[in-house]
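Homework help thread (please don't just give me the answer)

Our assignment gives two proteins as sequence + structure token strings and asks us to describe the second one. The first is just a warm-up. Here they are:
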Amino acid sequence: MQNVVMTSGLCKAYGSRTAVQGLDLCVPYGSVYGFIGPNGAGKTTTMKLLLGLIHPTSGSIRLLDEELTPQSRLKILSRTGSLIESPSYYAHLTAAENLQLVAGLKGAEAKDVVRVLDIVRLTPDARRKVGQFSLGMRQRLGIAMALLGWPTLLILDEPTNGLDPAGIQEMRALLAEMPRRCGATVLISSHLLSELEQIVDHVGILNKGRLLYQGPLAGLQQHSRGDVALRLLHPALAAPVLKSAGLAGLAREERGEVVLPPLKEAFLADLVGSLAAAGAGVVGVSCRSRSLEEIFLSLTKADGETGVV
């Protein structure tokens, strides 16, 4: 099984409004896949489609090497854990009692409660009533519920939503180790791009129901290199060189540096050599890397352009 999740032409419409259109998701086995998009992009709708909570208008869904149908849904979901929007729990019961109830519903062994409490670091609080828990603790309890029964696929919708910085850091560390510790492929949605960048290895960028990019995070970052900054002793001597290279109208000065758009390595090497020969005095060359947030904003900008830049 190379891909845990595959969809083909997946669409969901509510009357005249299309929430998801032509979605071709591909989530590799053993990955932490970040599903990224602004509020209203269609992330939660897609996750509900994957779980069979709503029915697609058109297209197909394949999970864990099986087509998702009304007949196969229960079998597939028995190998899937999920947390959509916010966890459900009984506030007057303890964490362990809540998990025991869910374990019974999922047909999981009672001893599995001990395992998942340890994974989400709630063992010391197992006998506390959930009504006394912080938001971060309740989110971890929700993930513990999703982990009952050793799921192969874990679907988490905005698990860091509403958490403080310490809670986000704790959740980040927890999710990053899921494939190794639990053997679960993780599909996680969020709009906190800086946090996802630190834990995901694959990414899908969604906007207005359409998938703008999908693939390895490293590939996206490499493909979307940032500007080149040159530190020169004599910037005035660089002008003729930049003009002959066709860069005169593209260069700009920022904080004492000459900034150029992304350049191919061979072209940049020749340019630096020409600048040195002209006496411009090249003392520093830096290629600025764009963060996932910068890439995301360029992909989802208001004019609707969707090409990776």
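The one we have to describe:
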Amino acid sequence: MGSRNEILILGARSLVAPLLAKRLAEKEYSGRCLSRTPPDERLDFPSAFPWSYLDAKQPGDWAPPEQAVIFSLMPLWLVPPLLPRLAGSRQLIVFSSTSVFSKATSRDPKERAVAEDLAVAEAKIAEFCTTKSIHWTILRPTLIYGGGRDRNVSAIARFIQRWGVFPLVYPAKGLRQPVHAEDLAGAALAAMDNPKAVNESFNLSGGETLSYRAMVERIFERLGRRPRIVPVPLGMLTVGLKVLNRFKRTPYSPELFRRMNQDLAFDADAARAALGYDPRPFRP
């Protein structure tokens, strides 16, 4: 269905990359997966999508073939500097995040900066592609899990396995919609050469909406353990994290705990209509 190098996947080390490559190969497409470092050898990449080196910050003379379809699974802010090199592409399908909305009003300046970077990158991509007549699609997942490599569900599971309990800011009622990486791969594939996806943005939530506490309890159950929830005041968790960060830097902000009681649910009806998006319920 396609000749080699017509399809490029940028961000070969992402959760979605091997799943997307597998789906493309099953439809007899071929191309390449690119990243700065090779993907883990344990990941199941099809032979039709071998790895190639690309440092998005220092791309050298790299440029994709004419009329290529580009899937970008890299951090979105790495895409705008590459845009001049993509001028001859047929379609650009990129992953952003619903964090563009949920972190825009965070009390943490670093999180607000992430939201701003996402918003700016989305705008630049849409403007450039429209000017160059490149079809673009922006996909915004909610909380991604799958494959044991995510920093969401898998991180919670590892904490539970180590300590046997999980601390929550009571009542931890904020709504969540975990989305499996496999469903995101399906949505990305469905956007390719799809007139309904041209120059559109879609929120991609999971197939089930549940509270943060219910999500954690289900992870306990999946591990074969009785849920053991420890209610902890927000202030205590915040202080504990600050102390921990003095000795070992973590990727977590105190805002993580505050959001346990914040609804982060997004409507995916547009994706259902345009992409046939049908995500699975949360089964970690």
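TA reply:
I won't write it for you, but here's a hint about the kind of observation we're looking for: The chain has two domains: 7-146+178-209+265-275, 153-174+210-261.
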